[in-house]
Structures are given as C-alpha cells and as structure tokens.
Amino acid sequence: MEPRIQYAKTADGVSIAYWTLGEGPPVVWIQTPPFSHIQLEWQWPVARRAYEKLAERRMLVRYDGRGSGLSDREVATFSLETHLLDLKAVIADLGLARLALMAYGDAGPVAIAYAARHPEKVTHEVLWATYARSGFEDEPDVQGLLALLDSDWRLFTETLAHSVLGWSDADRGAWWVRFLAQSTSREAVRAAWTASFDVDVVDLLPSVKARTLVLHPAQIRWATMDQAKLLAARIPKARLAVLEGSGALGFDDRMISAIEEFLDEGEPSAAAAEPPAPSAFRTVLFTDLVGHTEMMSRLGDERGRAVLRDHERITREVLKAHGGTEVKTMGDGFMASFGSVTKAVECAISLQKAFDDRNRGVGAQHPVESTDPASRPEATRLDGPSMSPGAAPLQASEPGTTFVEPLRIRVGLNAGEPIEEDGDLFGATVILAARIAARADGGEILVANAVRELCSGKGFLFADRGDFVAKGFEDPVRVFEVRWGE
User: Fold this and answer.
1) Under a CB-based contact definition with an 8 Å cutoff, are residues 302 and 445 in contact?
2) What separation in angstroms does the CA of 454 have from each of 321, 340, 396, 457, 460?
3) pLDDT tens for residues 6-44?
C-alpha cells in the first residue's frame, strides 16, 4: 500500500510533503535537492523495495524538500539554512525526540549541520556519496550541465541521468529521465545548484557526536575519495566504507544491508549491556484520521491544516480527560498509552462520540464555505440534520449553505508489555495495536482479544470480527469491535 502523504509547514511558510513507513526508531532519509518526488519514487520497484526493507524494524521518513516533488514548488530561496528549515519542519510535525539521518549527494551538508547543531537528537548518521565542502562549480562536467540547463531542459535531464547511472542501463536511464523532469523545475535546479557551490560545513564536522557511516560508492564522479576521507577523519565517531561496484543511487542490496547493519549498532558499551527490561503493563491505543490525504488535496494546505488542528484539539482533550499519555502524533493520527485497560476503552469510546458530536455540528470550530454541496459528498450541514456514515449525500439545493468538514477516525487497541526507550514505546504490543487500528473502518473501534478479556464484566459491548493475518505475526489475530453507539 502506498504511504499516506502528509504535510509540515516550515518556519518561513513552505509546505513540505512527507510520508512515513513502518514502526520503530525513526530514520529520516534526505534526498539530494531539488531532485525528489516521494510519490514517483514509490512507483519505482527498486526504490520501493529498499524503503520497505529499511522499514521492517524502523519508521522510515521520506520528504520532498522545497522546490521538489509534492512540496511547494514556487520558492525563491535555496540555501543550507532553508534546507534545514525543511528538515526541522518534518521532525517537529512528527514530534521526533531522537532519530537517525540518512543523506545522499547534496543533502550531506544538511544532515551534517543538523547533527552538529542538535547532537542530543541524532543517534546515527549515514552520509553517502556526499561531501562537506563543495567547490564543484569549476568542473567541466558541471559547467556543461549548466549550459544545457539553460538551453534544453530535456537534454539536460537525459545527460544528468546517464552521467549518474552510466549509459549501459537504458531502461533505468529512461525512468530516471522522466523522474528528474517531473521532480523539479529548471529554475529550482539552477537556484539550488548555485547555492550549493558556496556550501562549506568542514568546521562543523568535529561537532557531530552521532555515530556516522561514510558510504562511498567507488564509481561516482561528483564526490571524490578525498572528500569521503575528510568526512571520516574529522567526524569523531565516523568510519569509512568504500563499496566497489555498488550503484550510485544507493538502492542496491549491498548498500541497504550496510546501512541496516550500521543502524543496528548502539553505543560502544551496548554489547555488554543487558537488554532493556520490559516496561509496566500498558494498553496501547492508535488513532488514524480517515481520508486525510484526500481532504488536504480538496481543501488546500491552509484550510486543511485548520481542520487538522480541530482533530488534534479534540483528541488531546479526550486523552487528558481519561488519563491517557500521548506518546506521539503521526500527523493524521495519535499513539497513546494507558495504565488501565478500562480507561483506554472508555477513552476510545469518548473519542468516537466526540468526533460524532463534532460532525453533527456540535463544537465545530472550522466551517468550510461551499456553494456546491453536491461536489462535497462527505459534507455535513451545520443548520440541519446530521449525516451519519453511509447516509445519502446532501443535495445541492441551498447555495451558500455553510458546511463543516467531517472528521472520522479509526481506533485500535492492544494490551501487553511494550519496550520503553526515550519516551517512546516499541515491540510487538505496539506493532499489533497499529495493525489492528489499520483494520478498522472510520467510526470503528477494534481491540485485540487480550483487551476484550481484561474488560470482562465492565459493561462494554463487543462484537466478534474474526481472525486476520497481521503483517509480521505468524498466528492469526482475533479482533473484536467495541459497539460504542449502543
């Protein structure tokens, strides 16, 4: 399934598109600006396989920087500082306290600068095919590409694709020509490249405290071995790995395996330490906003974000009222934990009731003006009867009527002993809770059998929804629906 596209807003007002994949310790992958398109990349089997591999035991985060992909294209400034604003916006939107960074090509200095300025947040850093000081502007290849950029956009993309990939792989080269042409614009390339010629983060290298892997494909032309050695020598906890015969784009199995092995490493003393003890028994609750991507596309960034703030406000108020702990938010959903399974189920019911009340016009904060109700099949009228899930859409009979964007969430719960690290929760209990939430429909609450059994005699109504095979679990999982409307 294609990851859901979400948006973060930078400090200077640029909308940045991103997606997440998997659960676990977060890894943020930064592509070389401005060549990025997180939706098109997913359609390329080689890239998709690499993403899925890295996300098997982690939460992988990919985003389009400004001027590229699904992010705002009409931007005037490209610099190291503006690229850092993009990265910070995504990290803040996901609420990441600790993370690993992976940076390719011209994105290397961005990761270096962030890790140097925020040593408390970055645990690992992978720098591949990159540099700390540019100085490429006088290279004949670069000057030739810039001349093509000004005169022939198609020929520029063809030449750039084949200069990176070589000329032997015609099929891959043709795909990347199309990708480059659709990922950005002529103006963005010139602005980003011109800004990159002045980049110099050499003085920041000693301040990078994260464990760092400098990956250098031997065949690349734009980052030399001397530049790779400089990174490995100046960063205190860095090591250099030169991969002969590995692809320049880094999606091949050898490079992904090297990255996975590196990310699995902890601090030097970790090998001798005992595994972290399980935390106390918890009930883990996941929520997910139905139709988030379609809503953002329909309403636009400003109005869509206003509706999301309403979603976040309601969720946090209900969590607080029932003693839930917000572990993190994923943009269109929440992860929370409870010491009491009863309070967790009561909270889930209250969440569904709160959003149902909102959709009926009670407490709606952000009405959306519409002159064509028929074009908005999920709109709910504020001045008339509510439209419950599955009811017929309102007819276009009253132009100018005010409508509120309905919010429908799915909720999933599981109970067990998750692993707690740095304020986050991990392990099979958490993963299964997320899988169960994804199984629910809008307006539904699904729970694991463990939750149902612990709630025996508490007055809740459950309906058996049967077994399903959850990804990553060998045995079928039995789930039950909480009948909150009865």
Assistant:
1) no
2) 21, 10, 48, 9, 11
3) 999 999 999 999 999 999 999 999 998 998 999 999 988
Residue 389 main-chain phi, psi, to 5 deg: -55, 130
Structure token pair of residue 272: 């001798």
Domain boundaries, the chain: 6-272, 282-366+405-482
Q: Which amino acid is at 100?
A: A
- CATH superfamily for domain 6-272: Alpha/Beta hydrolase fold, catalytic domain (3.40.50.1820)
Q: How far apart are CA 241 and CA 250, in angstroms?
A: 13
**Is residue 340 within a helix (H) or strand (E), and if so which, with residue range?**
none
422 CB burial (10 A radius; 0-12, 13-18, 19+): exposed
Q: What separation in angstroms does the CA of 355 have from each of 264, 360, 364, 443?
A: 40, 9, 10, 9
In the block, tokens 């049967």 appear at 466
pTM > 0.85: no
Residue with the two structure tokens 């990310």: 263
At a CB cut-off of 8 Å and minimum separation 6, what does 273 contact? none
**Domain 282-366+405-482 part of CATH 3.30.70.1230:** yes
Dump pLDDT digits (tens) for 168-207.
555 566 777 888 888 999 899 988 888 888 899 999 999 9
Count of other CB atoms within 10 angstroms of residue 80: 17
